[in-house]
Amino acid sequence: MKHTTVAAYAAPAPGAPLEKTTIARRAPGAHDVVIDIHYAGICHSDIHMVRGHWGEKRYPIVPGHEIAGVVAEVGPGVTRHAVGDRVGVGCLVDSCRECENCRAGLEQYCTGELGMVGTYAATGRDGQPTQGGYSRRIVVDENYVLSIPDALPLDAAAPLLCAGITLYSPLAHWKAGPGQKVAVVGLGGLGHLGVKIAHAMGAEVTVLSQSLRKRADGLRLGADHYHATADPATFRELAGRFDLILNTVSADLDLDAYLGLLRTDGTLVQLGLPETPYALSAFALLRGRRSLAGSAMGGIPETQEMLDFCARHGITAEIELIPADYVNEAYERVLASDVRYRFVIDAATI
Ligand code: NAP
Ligand code: ZN
Ligand code: ZN
Predict the structure, then answer these.
(1) What are the pLDDT digits (tens) for 312-342?
(2) Could you tell me the CATH number of the domain that includes residue 273?
(3) Which of 210, 173, 215, 218 lies closest to 192 in space, CA to CA?
(4) Which residue out of 268, 337, 341, 343 has the highest number of ligand 1 atoms within 8 Å of its CB and is therefore the one to mutate?
């Protein structure tokens, strides 16, 4: 069988605006699922990646790893999904499947030779570059395709595939729940889902945002408290307060100041991926036996668990649905923290 050609939006070079193009999708193999993409979320990582913040990549790049759609075709060996199923694809489309992490369902931390294969700007098992969700169709191995529960609308569910799991995974790992004080730093795409999920888990949730501009939204989404980080009084008032701080900020931050907000044995989990390294004082960690940790998305079983959790709790992203030709403006608005709270591309407009 031959590959198919599909319409897509791609960055032709680092920093260049995205433009309409076509890309090839492989003919489905025995275990492949062909997905008609309905919606693709815009993650801040898409911007870091196409602008070369994380090092050189092969161009053109079709970004997009928050994909929701419907199965159009399946290979003869597929058992997990059927034509017509509502499905999603997140940040990874393959991994070695044999290493300790893959066997534990932590495919995002694959240590095998293949490594985690990113949904775009990576190299697949076949040696070809992967291309992401800003396109009409994608072909993915069935083991890396998630089922989207009927209770979740596809457009507002798309951002769960990256932003949702990226917050769910550390909240679950550090056991956020009743009696725990959780702070979410940055009320953007990741942060707003962190507020909803932490609230649904029963934790007491505080938003730490640059200003009080989005305070009403934060409280409506489930936050119990909301503070401006531009106000130095915030850091005095909240000193030693939190069990868990989830930092979703995409830019450099004074981590020492945030570590000071942890109670004894508290953990600050780094989720944002700024291009420059942080400065850190050892004293900020020693005081109160604090931990600084990182967390990347989530594995396939946990991503399914997160989707099911969101369906049970009625959690979806707050989205602004856009036509594909708005993508470059949307990027500028994300960079200006002017998004409430996730742009989602209507793939029918590609
Ligand atoms: P986003 O929608 O742009 O949200 C980031 C938020 O950070 C903004 O809304 C803003 O919140 C705050 N912020 C931005 N610039 C700031 C600055 N200079 N100083 C202080 N706060 C600032 O981005 P996102 O899609 O949520 O992604 C956030 C970061 O996580 C990105 O770096 C992305 O690459 C990374 N990421 C990591 C993973 C992972 O697996 N760990 C997964 C996905 C994304 P306020 O307006 O409330 O201050
Ligand atoms: Zn992402
Ligand atoms: Zn592996």
Answers:
(1) 999 999 999 999 999 999 999 999 999 999 9
(2) 3.40.50.720
(3) 218
(4) 337
Pocket probe for ligand 1: among 190, 254, 340, the residue whose CB has the most ligand atoms within 8 Å is 190
Q: What CA–CA distance (Å, rounded) separates 281 from 324? A: 44
The backbone torsions φ and ψ at residue 28, rounded to the nearest 5 degrees and listed phi first, read -65, 130
- Give me the number of domains the chain comprises: 2
Taking 70 as the threshold, does the pLDDT of residue 1 lie above it?
A: no
Q: 214 lies in a domain? A: yes
Give the global pTM: 0.98
Query: Closest Cα partner for 187 from 332, 44, 40, 41?
Result: 44
Residues with beta carbon inside 6 Å of ligand 1? 43-45, 48, 162-163, 166, 186-191, 209-210, 214, 248-251, 271-273, 295-297, 334, 337, 339
Mean of the per-residue pLDDT values of the chain: 97
pLDDT in tens, 80-92: 999 999 999 999 9
Is the backbone peptide bond immediately before 28 cis, with ω within 30 degrees of 0?
no
172 and 222 share one domain: yes
- Same structural domain, 218 and 134: no
Domain ranges, residue 117: 4-161+318-349
The whole-number average pLDDT for the span 12-16 is: 93
